[in-house]
Amino acid sequence: MNKIVYSLQKLASLQVKTAHRHCCDKCRGYHVSWPILRANALVGGIDSDKDIYVQCINQQFSNRNNMNILIAGCADSGILNMLFATDITGAYIDIVDRCMTPLECSITAVADSSDITIIHNDLLTFVPEKKYDLIVCHSLLPFFDDEGRGRLLRNFALWLDRGGKLLISMRNKTEDNSPDDIGVWIEQKTQTAFERVDTKENTYFRRDDLVDYYTMMSRQNLPYRTVDEAEQEFRSFGLKIQDSYIGGKGLSFVSNGNNPHSLILVAGL
Ligand SMILES: C[S@@+](CC[C@H](N)C(=O)[O-])C[C@H]1O[C@@H](n2cnc3c(N)ncnc32)[C@H](O)[C@@H]1O
Asked: CA-CA distance, 154 to 156, in Å (whole number)?
């Protein structure tokens, strides 16, 4: 299938520059730091969950040709990279994000963008032109309050094709697997990581970029931690949980452990 041709370091530099053009104060800190933290294996995001995701997708779909796929919220090209590692062939991929930064960087980082469409929209107002065989929603739920999460789940149910599957995954944050002060931790790690970036890349990273990241990080608690808790809510929005996978390496933010801390819920209609 397709591949990502940008290294994570190069992607991080591009994302910093792009963030200064597109991001608002609320998302700049996140979009600026995420790829550089990923490049240095300092966060446990999609990279930590890649193997379990690939296994899940390969097991869940017997026909993996010409699938319509939606990436709901992308952060950077990490989810694309995971999809490219599956046995899916000839997919049409839509990526929706409310910020242009991860969209523009993802499409630039990919070898062949002909079957990938970036959509600059809010997932609560987006109206797709087609139904999807697969919707990937990784670590997105903490961005929504209870009412917004309900609207999002209802939308996913409307957008799934017959036999389509929604993969919702959540990284489990517990009190003992995150630094005491996540803001200070992110700032230090991002700063150090960017110091290592080749100066020729001309990356204009500013300390101020991170300020609003702190507020966002404090909202990372997840709405449910068990399948049972999720099941009831999903059912009320027209989604049935069909399977679940627990795995992933590393912890929520600091990837220095091996505890399985991710839950992927596979839901259908
Ligand atoms: C935590 S990241 C998703 C992480 C990504 N799935 C990954 O694992 O790398 C959240 C992304 O969703 C976007 N986002 C948050 N709320 C959104 C909304 N209501 N509509 C569209 N995109 C949203 C943010 O701009 C950000 O890029």
From this structure: 5
Low-confidence ranges of the chain (pLDDT < 50): 175, 177, 199, 214-215, 218-220, 252-258
Q: How far is the CA of 202 from the centre of ligand 1 (A)?
A: 26
pLDDT tens digit sequence for 40-76:
777 777 888 899 999 999 999 998 999 999 999 998 9
Q: Ligand 1: distance of its center to the CA of 71 in Å? A: 9
Pick the CATH number of 8-178+212-268 from 3.40.50.150, 3.40.190.10, 3.90.650.10, 3.90.25.10: 3.40.50.150
Q: 145 CB contacts (<8 Å, ≥6 apart)?
A: none
How far, in Å, from the CA of 122 to the mean position of ligand 1?
Answer: 10
- Phi first, then psi, for residue 134 (nearest 5°) are -145, 130
pLDDT tens digit string along 226-251? 778 889 999 999 999 999 888 877 55
* E-only strand ranges, 109-159: 116-120, 132-138
Cα R_g (the chain), whole angstroms:
18
Ligand 1: residue of 140, 155, 167, 262 to mutate (most ligand atoms within 8 A of CB) is 140
Please state the pTM of the whole predicted model.
0.90
Residues with CB under 6 A from ligand 1: 27, 45-46, 73-75, 78-79, 96-99, 102, 122-124, 138-140, 143
Domain boundaries, given as residue ranges, for the chain: 8-178+212-268
